[in-house]
């Protein structure tokens, strides 16, 4: 029998950040990797990796006001705030779907910010990775939809998502820059209600099947931090971090997992 531990805790001694990235992150933006620049934007904060050419993590805050806008297009562009040799450009994705069966996968989903003035920022390639079509169009998008469904009921959610590099997956066939495609991805979903934080974390592999259930990929935040090399909520006190980050399934019910 599986024991379910709810990642819900009433926090004491909360320390909230102030400044440009405070709106995108809960208890501070992630720390722990120093391979590139951190870019703060109105709808997300992103840590670029100059070696892999993809973001090590992105953090964003989904509310009822940010989503449910009109249909938006996907017009891919290189990130103008990064040196060209630190990121990819649209032509690097040529033939990717035909040869390695990958989509241009958003880390910050467009649909979660379609009602904002800056929705086009989700289409910058610093926010994109080559994600297997089965994963992108299967359990990954189902989880993103579950996040929006919970938000539509009046619940703000904070999310941190990013790649893992644990084994070789593929290379973009037409890319002219050195890069490393992720072997999998993590997503941490967090809700703050008064002085209580609830959280669920997920890890999905590029080898996932389209029919996989995202609910079966739940892990602790501790596991994500160990495998990704980051500290997700650096402003948490030690005792609070010990409790919430070692637990699992905090938002399981809210995200439709029973």
Name the features.
single chain; 258 residues; alpha+beta; 8-stranded antiparallel beta sheet; two-stranded antiparallel sheet; 5 helices; disordered N terminus
Distance between the termini: 14 Å
Helix content: 10-25%
How many alpha or pi helices? 5
Which overall shape is indicated by the principal axes computed on the Cα atoms? globular
Output the helix-strand order. EEEEHEEHHEEEEHH
Largest sheet: 8 strands, antiparallel
Structural overview:
The protein is an alpha+beta fold and 258 residues long. Helix content is 15%, strand content 22%. It starts with 7 loop residues before the first strand and ends in a 14-residue tail after the last helix. Mean pLDDT is 91; it is low at 1-21.
Element layout with pairings:
Blueprint: E1 8-10, E2 38-40, E3 45-48, E4 55-62, H1 96-100, E5 102-106, E6 128-132, H2 133-136, H3 139-152, E7 157-164, E8 184-193, E9 196-205, E10 218-219, H4 221-228, H5 238-244
Describe the structure concisely.
Helix content is 15%, strand content 22%. The protein has 258 residues and is α+β, with helices and mostly antiparallel strands.
């Amino acid at each position: 029998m599986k024991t379910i531990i709810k990642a819900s805790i009433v926090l004491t001694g909360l320390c909230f950040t102030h400044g440009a990235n405070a709106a995108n992150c809960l208890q501070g933006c992630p720390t722990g990797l120093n391979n590139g620049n951190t870019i703060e934007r109105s709808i997300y904060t992103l840590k670029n990796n100059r070696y892999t050419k993809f973001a090590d993590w992105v953090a964003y805050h989904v509310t009822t006001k940010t989503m449910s806008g009109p249909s938006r297009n996907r017009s891919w562009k290189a990130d103008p705030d990064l040196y060209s040799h630190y990121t990819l450009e649209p032509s690097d994705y040529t033939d990717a779907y035909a040869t390695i069966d990958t989509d241009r996968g958003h880390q910050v989903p467009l649909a979660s910010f379609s009602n904002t003035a800056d929705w086009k920022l989700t289409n910058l390639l610093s926010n994109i990775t080559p994600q297997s079509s089965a994963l992108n169009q299967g359990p990954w998008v189902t989880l993103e939809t579950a996040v929006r469904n919970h938000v539509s009921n009046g619940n703000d959610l904070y999310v941190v998502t990013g790649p893992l590099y644990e084994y070789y997956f593929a290379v973009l066939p037409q890319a002219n820059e050195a890069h490393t495609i992720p072997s999998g991805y993590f997503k941490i979903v967090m809700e703050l209600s008064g002085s209580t934080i609830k959280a669920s974390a997920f890890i999905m592999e590029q080898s996932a099947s389209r029919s996989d259930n995202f609910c079966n990929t739940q892990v602790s935040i501790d596991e994500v931090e160990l495998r990704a090399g980051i500290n997700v909520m650096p402003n948490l006190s030690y005792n609070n971090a010990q409790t919430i980050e070692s637990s699992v399934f905090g938002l399981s019910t809210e995200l439709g997992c029973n």
